[in-house]
Amino acid sequence: MNTTAQLLQNNKSKILETWMQNQLQDNSLRDDLISNEELRRQSDELISSLARATSTGNVDNIHAPEYETVIEILSDISITRARQGFSPRETGMYVLSLKQALSAILEEKHSDQPEVLYKELLIIHRLLDNLSVVTFETYIKGREEVILRQTDEINEISTPVIRVWDGILALPIIGTLDSARTQIVMENLLQEIVNTGSSIAILDISGVPAVDSLVAQHLIKTVSATRLMGAECIISGIRAEIAQTIVHLGIDLSNIKTKASLATALQLAFSMRNVEVRNSSKKTGFSISR
Amino acid sequence: MERIPILKMGPFLLVTIQVDLYDRLALNLENDLISMVSKTGARGVLIDISAVSIVDSFMGRILGNIASMSRIMDAETVVVGMQPAVAITLVELGLTLQGVYTALDVEKGMELLQDKIGILEDPEEDEEAPDDCND
Fold it and tell me: Which value does ipTM take for this structure?
């Protein structure tokens, strides 16, 4: 058994104490997010598994099978921390403070043998540096998962298909249209057309910040797919700047019905469906005749 | 050999595709349909593809061909009941079936065909109407 493993094995409780002290002293400790007992349990588990892993004699290669449990525990801790909202610094300091604790104990043990101390310190540092890299990788992975989930959610809620009239659907698009979103918009719209049996769909792009040739391409695709289903598509909400860019880019929208505002598009849709909206007597406000 | 039935309904031909079309079947359908149009002098062709869930570029081309051929023979083509997934696939393949009329279901397709044929026949009726009054 090598000295590192011995050190870990024999001084487990002492290391844990020092480490806990280090963590508790740190100002950035988030006792609002994690309780002290929980922290102690996690730390204890990590030290034990680290002691087991080092006892095999392997202290450099953390990708070896004996380190699997250590990495699993660490990944688990960092992913939970990423989800709980710990900052990168707080997560990083968790492993780095173990390094401090170990160094302190090593110094105490080998104060009379500088050479051994130096070697042991090197080993410990290399090992824990590797582990902190693992922590960071998984922390970032956890954060990315959160971001991906939020993106999905935004996509889900940002493309509502509204039934504005019998046989007329409206789809306000807010935000930039990329390929993935166009796919979702298209699928939602076509499915809703089937469900409601609508014959007219109004695509309102007043919430789209900019239209480039790619976005225009996506719009044309959506219109074509709607037409294939047997429904008409009107694009509304074209602002002056958007009209300018479309013409400058040389995009041909001539065989697509376009309107400046949702109101005029709705008027067109009404006339296409032979619906008439007109003012009537003052009592009722308005009435609709077909 | 498997064939897709073509039904005659007044001046229109109705085709309901209820199996997935493989290339041979599609080619046969094209032949049968065009000879049917020529034999019956149909004014409109209604193709119901609501049961078709798989479509490829060949199938898209056949639909386009049928429409162009019918047009030459003075018949309009309406494709009805396309599934959303099929519509998306066709658009992604770049096949927007220009020149083919589309409708949501057979009923709406029928109305559309009647409208189209009506527009074509209206002038004649208008001419005939005064004659009838005079008689």
Answer: 0.74
